[in-house]
Design goal:
The structure is a homodimer. By secondary structure, the first copy, chain A, is α+β, with helices and mostly antiparallel strands. Chain A is built from eight helices and 17 strands. Chain A is 21% helix and 35% strand. The interface between A and B is large, with 66 and 66 residues.
């Protein structure tokens, strides 16, 4: 069974100080926004700074002046951005950032990044980049190109782990796994002390977590099946320093680090990434919207020959 | 400008000793077979053992008892195999092997490997494998599963180079480049002494070569544009030993080696691949049709940060 864990991600910031997306916009609006992408809301947690919706495909975070949405699978996130622009009016949009990573199986996607960027460019003039080579892990990024300049303190981090260890995959695909066991596995008590947590175990497997504390968030999404495993972490606190711990837990064959406005990215990477990982790609750029973006992909050397994956031709799936 | 260099490849062997595909089947048949994939024949060279057609998208080789076809771009090679089976009749088919590597941009392909394998499985019962991880370079392989056992001397080799050096890309994208200059660049006089050569420079760039000597062949296909460059070598003589020379010429950031029935693959790789390349994937399998298949992907460590690729949203292409 194959599931495309790779996320599309959008952040939209509004310029209307009279309007709070957190306080003035109701759940029904966000449900409609999410359903525009073909996802749905499962649950919600909230504090005075932030609201976090757990989705059938990933997560939505809402603050007073912005929202952040991540959707995976074959969802079409660009539809949600379009919905928001139509509902609020283009004049209230301060900044749109849209990011999409290369999929495991892009052939099954309803659109490619180029299609998405063209859709967005109908509403906002923007720039598009690819971080990382075409033939390997990469992230596409579209951002609105206007007067907006991001606060240098608006930092965010992603750690994307591929091909986790056989042991990690086995544990995370255990039948009827309790959330507590997954929280223990990720040592979340330690990482998320004081956070409000909302998490969900999917059937037959898969795990999503939202955690908030004041305006801080962490979201984890786990697609654990061996051979196409993928675990993503996204937070607005430092995940590079946490990478040592996360990598020890998951032992992925390959992983990506991505950050916005972490100016010590390179130094932190040197300190936190174990020596047995080799940097395959290192890309950085200061965008015209003020975000300093870093992308890095790491791999481990394979020294022993393994066997290929046998594919069941008759099976109706997209693993082929 | 983007062109999908990644090839699909098929080898079909017949069991009718009264029929020679080389002597008894005319050019018009092969032209129809090729056009079934949406490619066309550009030229042909021939000797007593083998005929080599240069195609608008890659190459076709015909021997007495088999043919080998490689097509790139958005061609649908499985159509050509289906054409052949329909024309000759399924009873004359001894063995079908179909191989497809991961594309740069699979979203633009008319089918995925799963679709192709299902099409083939309607005619011949077979097995399918993936060599290499889903999130990185990999090759899909389908082969008919019957009484056929490949001759242990039926060896073949592929060397696939990605992200060739800036210098190599610059030279190979030079306007109005003469074939002689490309032959010099690849030191073909040395590699192909005694071979009959048929080569072609595409506009605005791109290069294909077929070379035959008795029953030996080499085919080279060059998609030279920076950022999505790809150069493939396929031959039935040892390309692993030649890899040292080819890698020195192209200096790719990443490359794959693949072989059928090279039993000293691992040892030769150790001897021929320069130390600055790291093995990212190593896969091997003895197929039930007798072919011992090896696949290896190598990368170079990137130590300095580079800038992302800027994408022109308005441009009508598939580089996004």
């Amino acid at each position: 069974m194959f599931f495309e864990g790779s996320e599309k991600k959008a952040e939209v910031i509004i310029n209307d100080r009279q309007l709070s997306l957190l306080d003035d916009v109701n759940d029904e609006f966000w449900a409609r926004l999410v359903s525009a992408s073909n996802a749905r809301i499962l649950s919600c947690i909230k504090n005075e700074s932030c609201k976090a919706y757990l989705l059938s495909e990933s997560s939505l975070f809402v603050w007073h002046d912005r929202f952040l949405i991540l959707t995976c699978g074959v969802t079409q996130l660009v539809n949600s951005i379009e919905f928001f622009i139509h509902e609020l009016g283009i004049n209230k949009i301060e900044q749109v950032t849209y990011q999409r990573k290369n999929e495991y199986f892009s052939h099954a996607q309803p659109s490619c990044f180029g299609d998405d960027a063209k859709r967005l460019a109908k509403y906002v003039s923007g720039k598009a980049y690819r971080f990382g080579p075409m033939d390997s892990h990469h992230n596409y990024l579209f951002h609105q190109d206007n007067h907006f300049r991001a606060d240098i303190n608006a930092k965010s981090y992603q750690l994307l782990a591929y091909q986790i260890s056989r042991q990690a995959s086995a544990l995370l695909t255990t039948k009827n796994l309790a959330v507590e066991r997954i929280r223990d596995f990720f040592c979340l008590d330690e990482i998320l002390a004081g956070f409000t947590i909302d998490d969900f175990v999917f059937q037959p497997f898969g795990y999503s977590l939202n955690a908030i504390f004041e305006d801080q968030y962490l979201t984890i999404h786990v697609t654990p099946q061996a051979d196409s495993s993928y675990v993503s972490f996204e937070a607005n606190f430092d995940l590079i320093t946490l990478a040592t711990k996360i990598l020890a837990i998951l032992q992925p064959a390959s992983f990506d680090l991505l950050s916005f406005n972490e100016l010590s990215f390179a130094e932190k990477v040197v300190d936190s990434v174990p020596q047995d990982y080799i940097s395959k790609s290192l890309v950085s750029e200061k965008l015209s919207n003020g975000y300093q973006v870093h992308f890095a992909n790491f791999i481990r050397e394979q020294v022993a020959y393994t066997r290929p994956i046998f594919l069941d031709i008759a099976e109706e799936n997209h693993t082929l």
